Amino acid sequence: MQEKSGMEQPRQINQQTDAGQKTFIPAKPKINPHERDRFFRVCAYCRVSTDNDEQLSSFELQQAHYKQMMQDHPNWELRHIYADQGISGTSLKNRDEFNEMIEACKRGEYDLIVTKSVSRFARNLVDCISLIRMLKGLTPPVGVFFETDNLYTLGENTEFMLSFLATFAQEESVKKSEAMTWSLQQRFKDGKLLTPAPLGYDRQRDVTGRYIKYAPLLVNEAEARIVRFIYDAYLSGWSQENIAAFLKDIGVQTKTGTTKWTSSAIGYILTNERYCGSVLTWKTFTADLYEHKHRKNRQDRDQYLYRDQHPAIISVEKFEAVQALIENRKHHVHGTLPSLHVIDEGIFRGYIPINHHWINDDPNVYYDISNSVTKVLKVKTIDKRSFSAFDLAGYQVVRNQFTQVRYEGPSITIANNRISFNLFCMKNFADVGYIQLLLHPAERKIAIRPCGERDTHSIRWRPDTTKPIYSKTLNCQHFGNALFSIMEWDPEYIYRVRGTWAKRGSEQIIVFNLVNAVPAVLITPEGEQTKASRRVEMCPAEWTDDFGDEFYEHILENGFYYLAPDSEWRTSAASVPAPGMEQFTVPSAAELQLTMEDLTRGTEKQND
Hints:
Elements: E1 16-18, E2 22-24, E3 40-48, H1 53-72, E4 76-85, H2 96-106, E5 112-115, H3 118-121, H4 125-136, E6 143-146, E7 151-152, H5 159-189, E8 201-202, E9 218-219, H6 221-235, H7 240-249, H8 263-270, E10 279-280, E11 284-288, E12 293-296, E13 305-306, H9 316-330, E14 341-343, E15 352-353, H10 363-371, E16 396-398, H11 400-403, E17 411-415, E18 418-421, H12 423-428, E19 434-440, E20 445-451, E21 459-460, E22 472-475, H13 477-487, E23 494-504, E24 507-513, E25 518-523, E26 534-537, E27 548-550, H14 551-557, H15 559-562, E28 575-577, H16 589-607
Parallel strand pairs: 3-4, 3-5, 5-6
Antiparallel strand pairs: 1-2, 6-7, 8-9, 10-13, 11-12, 14-28, 15-19, 16-27, 17-18, 17-23, 18-22, 19-20, 19-21, 20-24, 23-24, 23-25, 25-26
Helix pairs in contact: 6-16, 7-8
């Protein structure tokens, strides 16, 4: 039997001739899906928005309904019923059956799509109109019949009504989304927390075995051992990839029962605040109703952090240390936890050895660490006779910026992302392989001193003294931001600071008083093709009414330089861990090895 399409039926042209001058040819009648003498290849589309039992029952009824509809239309041949279950209609993404149906229409397999309503077809106005127009433009065209709306898209003047119904369906979705958002917001506000159990925890059950809603999580000790190992290994310098590979090799199971550990799975565990007993609500949200794109919540939605909601597996201090380490590794700073130290004796008392790679913009951290050292009261008066036979009170030590046209001393140039040392610094530290960069935030001073390679936060200076001497630049974006905040500098400027080099015996240091920084801007002359620019320095407003520091105040500020010959500098005094850094200890390699062996034995025993 030869197949006939509703768009291929022959028709008789009723021509009328009027006195041989014109011939009238009537238009082809519009397709009517209810015509009895036209054959239609039909498919039906069903969709339910949720996957609960009640809706799935409705889904089965819809299929039965369309089968009965075909019996009421003998000229409709139902070839397939497409159905998506539990998929939203606001987007075409993941609607596999729907998309397969559209592709079949493009291949010319159907003449008619039957569905319950516009809202079942698409809740997105743009998608709905564009799809209908695309189907109408096919050869042969494909019509859509919306049953409850009694609308056929190939009929006369249907687009206005279709637009109205599609807009109504879209707004219905918007209102439902707003209602769900409000419901979640109230639930989080009232502390009704839905907490799926991650690895290391189990949900509580009642006597019937059903999960207890909103009940605190319980620790699963066998899984908690794996979580503790992951945190300890990461703090010891392991990468997420190495941890995943080890757990996979020894056959440790994930929460879902597989052994397919991935770097992202380790990352999820390392950043999940539930392991320290807390619950943070609304960590992600649906940013686009129509594309269903999830986005990290960066204060776009109200959040609540509930602490002590269940027993902790990881201490808060260890969790926060891991977050700091993760942030550093994002910027390619490898190794173990970046420790924070402070010098508690000698002329650098209260100075902080700076890890210029450390990812931290908060200036308060540096103030807290420096202030943690017991302050030594500085002498407010000095023996004036030891400096001059005359009383120099009221006299000023003129800034060398006013007296030296060509400056050949130590200087640094500071931008908010780098610190550059001039050739003088390099030449006077020519035999130094490593240095420490020191900061005293309250005194507004930066200093450098020689150190060993293994000293805290040592910086390569000139490890190979046979190579030519060049200026030195340290990239330090985050420390630079903190320094600019401490000094209240304008990030649009760069600042040049002249320093003081001092040497006594085998000890030598360079100190820069940041208060005397000179701001500058880089200017590119107009009309020049090259990108060369020149630095134009400006006079700070604070220098308007004076030429320098009062003589005796200058002596006190630079006391290290004027110390009596028999006093001790102790410039190489070691730094000590800052308070708070000793609240937990990173496991040693031997301790971590024992944990690894314990996990391996436990896994082998479980698999036997």
